[in-house]
Specification:
Elements: H1 2-28, H2 34-45, E1 47-48, H3 50-53, E2 57-58, H4 66-75, H5 82-94, H6 108-143, H7 148-162, H8 165-176, H9 200-220, H10 223-238, H11 241-248, H12 253-270, H13 273-282, H14 286-291, H15 297-307, H16 310-338
Antiparallel strand pairs: 1-2
InterPro entries: MetI-like, MetI-like_sf
Transmembrane segments: 122-143, 155-185, 207-230, 269-292, 312-331
Main location: membrane
């Protein structure tokens, strides 16, 4: 086991470097970089800002001088060859120094830490509620396979799956967020403006009231896959020979379900926990965050791409990729922890 873990950890390094290298190479060919955007802003304003040359130099003939352009390139680090810049970036990332944003005037690490609570709230609640709803519902559908309950819940789950979370969120806002009908839920942010003045119970209520609609929109789209996966896994176990043997011995159905079937059927579901849990922190929906005015990591990444804020793009990619690769490793290892029959070292 430890040999396998060491091999996988060593494999993380070239995988991570490959992803960073491909993304870095693509960035070099994307038009409208930060220098071009700053030149456009300075041309429109008619002056070179202090960020470019350290003083306000008036433009001549509506264009920047060669010195100003050189200063801008040096400011953003484009005065070095691409390979040198990539090597410097890798060295910094190895120390978890993610650099500083071109436009936010903050380090990338500070930006991620600042936006993390929003994405954590969306992702964590979505993860918990999805599993709390889908596993019992999937088990019930498997036990009552072919019944009216199975058919009705199947239709409801598939309808929720076919409606995009963004569309459902828009409908919820129109109906309950002060649109054309009822203003039952607030719009925008995780908490209200008077959050600091509320009691502890009031703060909890205010927080839950703000995230109710975005969480509902996020969870609805995740129900179908996990519910059907749970149902199919349990159906497969119910039809195995050991279940018929247990019934032939006269064991109660409840004992067969929870003592034998449940333990075996949960293996593929539990092993997906690490990846789903880690992903919950970093895969906040951009559309949901935008619709409900939530300033999270999804919106940060989107704005970084649009503004060509390369340190934020590469820094968030590095963190997300590293966490995703580690989550995949934990998922693989959890198979061996949960099912002792599985070995990664070729042992019998």
């Amino acid at each position: 086991m430890w040999r396998y873990i060491l091999q996988r950890l060593l494999l993380l390094i070239p995988t991570l470097l490959g992803i960073l290298a491909v993304t870095f190479a693509i960035i070099q060919f994307v038009p409208g970089g930060p220098v071009e955007q700053m030149v456009q802003q300075l041309t429109q304003s008619g002056a070179v800002g202090e960020a470019a040359a350290g003083s306000a130099n008036v433009l001549k003939n509506g264009a920047l001088s060669a010195d100003d352009l050189a200063a801008l390139n040096a400011l953003y680090g484009f005065d070095k060859p691409p390979l040198t810049r990539f090597a410097d970036m890798v060295v910094r990332f190895a120390r978890f120094d993610l650099g500083e944003s071109f436009f936010h005037h903050q380090t990338v690490f500070e930006l991620i830490k600042e936006k993390m609570p929003v994405s954590m709230s969306l992702g964590l609640w979505t993860f918990v509620l999805t599993y709390l709803i889908c596993i019992p519902l999937g088990i019930a559908k498997a036990v009552k396979d072919g019944s009216r309950f199975d058919a009705l819940t199947g239709v409801a789950v598939l309808v929720g799956y076919t409606v995009p979370p963004f569309v459902l969120g828009l409908v919820l806002l129109v109906l309950f967020g002060g649109g054309s009908f009822w203003a039952w839920f607030p719009q925008g942010g995780l908490v209200g403006d008077d959050f600091d003045t509320l009691s502890q119970a009031g703060k909890i209520k205010d927080y839950l009231w703000h995230i109710a609609l975005p969480i509902t929109a996020s969870v609805a789209g995740n129900l179908a896959v996990m519910t059907l996966l749970t149902k199919n896994v349990f159906l497969e176990e119910i039809r195995r020979q050991y279940v018929y043997t247990a019934r032939a011995k006269g064991l109660p159905e409840r004992q067969i379900l929870w003592k034998h079937i449940f333990r075996n059927a949960m293996i593929p579901l539990i092993t997906g926990f690490p990846a789903a849990f880690i992903g919950a922190f970093f895969t906040g929906s951009l559309l949901i965050e935008t619709l409900f005015s939530l300033d999270g990591l999804g919106l940060l990444s989107y704005e970084a791409v649009m503004k060509r804020d390369y340190p934020v793009v590469m820094g968030t990619l590095y963190v997300f990729t590293l966490m995703g690769l580690l989550a995949k490793l934990l998922s693989d290892i959890s198979y061996s922890w949960i099912d002792p029959r599985i070995h990664f070292d070729g042992q019998k």
